Amino acid sequence: MAYDLRSETGIPTQPVGSLPRPAKLQAAYADYDAGRISKQQLEAEQEAAAKDSVSRFEATGSPIIADGEQWWSSFATYPVTDTLAGTGLADHLAAGGQYFAIFSDGHYRQLPKLVGGPFRYKTYAADTLARSIGFATKPMKQAVIAPSMLALLYPLDEELPGYSREDFEGDLVSECEKDIRGAFDAGAACVSIDFTEGRLALREDSRNPWTGRGMLPHFIDLINRVLDRFSPDERINIGVHTCPGGDRDAVHSADVPYAALLPSLFQLNAGFFLMQNKSERDRESVYKLVGEHSREDANGVAQVVHIGVINPQNPRAETPQEVCDELLTAAKYIPKERLGSTDDCGFSPFSIDEKPLHGSPDFARDVAFEKITSRVQGTKMAAERLGIHVPAAA
């Protein structure tokens, strides 16, 4: 039976995934890379941060929570490495792959590179969810990485000896399916696929060779190959997240108009979408595009669109009234039975993130929970204004 995301707030609301890691945990990652502490000592800090994340998340009143990805190197690299520095790389990978993204402040994030096959995940989302779910009393969601992101591990302009791109992508799709199924088996109420590279695929950046190559149609095909392995009843609780990036309070593709992405994005046969929008300059035009392109029937499922009402890059916490007003505007264009709310992005998708606009990751962590509380409260307010039933006990 599908989990009912509306059960407590009338309009469904959920996070994207990550939370800022405490400064103490970020220091532990550095110490682990330097060989000053053991893997067991790093995991003790990760567990403490995950337990704190779950407890504070539940205190926001959110109907569904996450562990904030405290166990992960990043949303993109958790299957293939223990840390962003490359400690503990998976088999058949080496350092020095292509850039995933170059951000607006000039910093970049780099992927490992594939040097042979077969390709297999080292860590699955279920492995860490199983460690966190025992701390929770509320349903938990789980994010997973899209196959399109990990497709960038394969060299752009060469074939690896004995391991073709076709064989690699077949393995990749199977690993992504396994990742999603494992998350549900571990107890996830819903799973979202992180697809931040969708918007970036439309940005031509001479510094980053994979962009500007028209890869979006192939990315859509790869994700649909995964989604097509699930029934409509399963896909109700499988979603896709899109945003222009978020790291160190900077973005990578906010200059790409949504009008270029959304017609393709909604060809994904997902049951829900988590879509950045709070930080857009012309939000109402995006709501109109969502209303035009999202589908009531996506191969057997109605697409619910959770619009971003919280900007994780901005240290100022939105008020519940601001959240409510945003949803009421969106409801002019998106059918209210297919409208939800979310945060624009994860609050810290990479494990090492100084959060420069906030001043410190610990302060950013406090602000994140304040923002989530506003999202939950404002979503309830909007549901009441739209005549959507909110249970009295909520």
Description:
Helices cover 36% and strands 11% of the residues. The strands form three sheets. It has a six-stranded parallel β-sheet with strand order 5-6-7-8-9-10. It has helices at residues 23-33, 39-59, 125-132, 147-150, 165-185, 197-200, 216-227, 232-235, 258-265, 283-293, 320-330, 361-385, and strands at 93-94, 99-102, 108-110, 113-114, 141-145, 190-194, 238-242, 272-275, 304-310, 339-343. The chain is an alpha/beta fold and 394 residues long. Helix 9 links the parallel strand 7 and strand 8 (272-275).
List descriptors:
394 residues, alpha/beta, TIM Barrel, 6-stranded parallel beta sheet
Could you give the topology of this structure?
Layout: H1 23-33, H2 39-59, E1 93-94, E2 99-102, E3 108-110, E4 113-114, H3 125-132, E5 141-145, H4 147-150, H5 165-185, E6 190-194, H6 197-200, H7 216-227, H8 232-235, E7 238-242, H9 258-265, E8 272-275, H10 283-293, E9 304-310, H11 320-330, E10 339-343, H12 361-385
Number of strands: 10
Tell me, rounded to a whole number, the average pLDDT.
96
Span between termini: 21 Å
Number of distinct helices: 12
The CATH topology label is: TIM Barrel
User: Regarding quaternary structure, how should these chains be classified?
Assistant: single chain
CATH architecture: Alpha-Beta Barrel
**Total number of domains:** 1
Please give the order of strands in the largest beta sheet.
Answer: 5-6-7-8-9-10
What's the CATH class label?
Answer: Alpha Beta
The percentage of residues in β strands lies in 5-15%
Task: Name the shape in a single word.
Answer: globular
The SS-based structural class is alpha/beta
CA gyration radius, whole angstroms: 20 Å
Which regions are unreliable across 5 or more consecutive residues at pLDDT < 50?
none
Range of helix content: 25-40%
Order of helices and strands: HHEEEEHEHHEHHHEHEHEHEH
- Report the major sheet: 6 strands, parallel
